[in-house]
Specification:
- With about 300 residues, the protein is mainly beta.
- It has one domain.
- About 5% of the residues lie in helices and about 40% in strands.
- It has one helix and 18 strands.
- It has a six-stranded antiparallel sheet with strand order 1-6-7-8-9-10, with helices on one face. Strands 11, 14, 15, 16, 17 and 18 form a six-stranded antiparallel sheet that branches.
- A hairpin with a 5-residue loop joins β4 (about 90-100) and β5.
- It starts with a strand and ends with a strand.
- Residues about 150-155, about 185-215, about 220-225 and about 285-300 have low confidence and may be disordered.
C-alpha cells in the first residue's frame, strides 16, 4: 500500500501558481502510484516554462502493477489544464488498457473526467490525498479544506476513484474497471458524477458507459438520528462490468451523514480485516428516508469514504 499527501495554496493566472498547484497534486499521485510509464513528453515540473489559460499541455501516465497487469493491463493518464479564469483548470483523469509510448492511451479507454474545476480560488491552505495498492485501486482527493468543520457547501472537494472489478472473495480480476468522480461546488454539496464501467474483452462484457450508482443502501426506515452505541456503519459499493457484478469495492464505501470524522484516517472492518479509510465529509444527498421524529421523515445523506492506504 502506498499513499501521498501534500498541502498548497490554490491559485491560477500565472506560471508560479500553476506549478505550485499542480506539482503538489502530482507529487501525491506519484507517491501513491510509483514510477511513471516511459511515454515521451511527460511533464517535468522543475522545467515547466509556460502556462496558458484553457490549455491542457502537461500530462503523466502511470501503470497499475501486480501479476494481473500482464493479462489485463490498466493505465491512468493525468492531464493538467492551465487557467486564468474560474472553472477553466483542473486535473483530467483518463484510463485505458494500453499506451502507444507517445502519451496516448490505446485499447479500451474511458472518457476523460475532471474531478473538480474551481469556480473561484478557495482561501487558505488546501490538501491533496492519494492512495493505491498499485494493483487494483487508486484514490485521489484534492482541493480539500484541511481546517473546515462543515460537511457541505464551499468545503466540497474534488475526488476520483479508479478500481478493477473483483471476485466475490475481493480479489481483483480482469473483467473491467470503474471510475467514480465528484465535482467541486461553491454553493452546494459535492455532486456525484456517475460511474464509468469499462471492460477488457469478451462479448458478454460490452465496453459501455454506465451511469448507475452501484452501492447497497441500508433499510433506513427505522434509523434514528443518533446511534444507540458508538458504532457507525459504512456501506459497500460494487465495481462492475456490464451486467456482471462481483465482490464489493476495497477502495470506496459510503457512510451515513456525518458519522465519520472528516478528513481523518479511520479504521473500518471490511472483508474481515481492518482497513484504513478517509471520510472526506462532503455529502452526496440520497433520499433515503430516516425516522427523525414520530410521523416525520427527512432525507439521509450518504458520505463518500475513500481508501487511505
Amino acid at each position: 500500500m502506498s499513499r501521498g499527501y501534500g498541502t498548497y495554496t490554490p491559485g491560477y493566472g500565472n506560471l508560479a501558481a500553476y506549478k505550485a498547484y499542480y506539482s503538489a497534486i502530482a507529487a501525491a499521485i506519484a507517491s501513491a502510484l510509483g514510477p511513471r510509464t516511459a511515454d515521451t513528453g511527460q511533464v517535468d515540473w522543475a522545467t515547466v516554462a509556460t502556462e496558458s489559460a484553457g490549455v491542457t499541455r502537461d500530462y503523466e501516465i502511470y501503470p497499475f502493477g501486480g501479476a494481473i497487469q500482464s493479462t489485463a493491463p490498466l493505465f491512468i493518464r493525468f492531464d493538467y489544464k492551465g487557467g486564468n479564469t474560474a472553472g477553466t483548470h483542473g486535473v483530467f483523469v483518463t484510463t485505458g488498457t494500453g499506451t502507444d509510448g507517445a502519451g496516448n492511451l490505446t485499447g479500451v479507454t474511458s472518457p476523460a473526467t475532471v474531478p473538480g474545476t474551481m469556480s473561484g480560488v478557495p482561501a487558505g491552505t488546501r490538501a491533496v490525498y492519494a492512495a493505491s495498492d498499485r494493483d487494483s485501486y487508486f484514490t485521489l482527493v484534492y482541493d480539500a479544506d484541511v481546517i473546515g468543520s462543515s460537511n457541505t457547501g464551499t468545503l466540497a472537494v474534488a475526488a476520483v476513484v479508479v478500481e478493477r472489478t473483483r471476485s466475490l472473495a475481493g480479489d481483483a480480476n480482469g473483467d473491467g474497471w470503474v471510475v467514480h468522480s465528484w465535482k467541486q461546488s461553491t454553493t452546494t454539496a459535492a455532486l456525484y458524477n456517475g460511474a464509468w464501467s469499462r471492460t477488457f474483452a469478451g462479448p458478454s462484457q460490452p465496453s459501455a458507459v454506465d451511469f448507475n450508482i452501484p452501492f447497497m443502501l441500508p433499510n433506513a426506515a427505522t434509523l434514528n438520528t443518533a446511534f444507540v452505541s458508538d458504532t457507525a456503519y459504512a456501506f459497500p459499493t460494487y465495481p462492475y462490468a456490464g451486467n456482471k457484478i462481483g465482490g464489493a469495492s476495497k477502495a470506496f464505501l459510503f457512510g451515513l451523514g456525518t458519522d465519520f470524522p472528516r478528513l481523518s484516517e479511520t479504521s473500518i472492518s471490511h472483508y474481515g480485516a481492518q482497513m484504513a479509510f478517509l471520510p472526506w465529509g462532503d455529502v452526496y444527498g440520497h433520499p433515503i428516508p430516516t425516522l427523525t421524529a414520530v410521523s416525520s421523515w427527512a432525507p439521509k445523506s450518504m458520505m463518500p469514504i475513500l481508501r487511505w492506504e
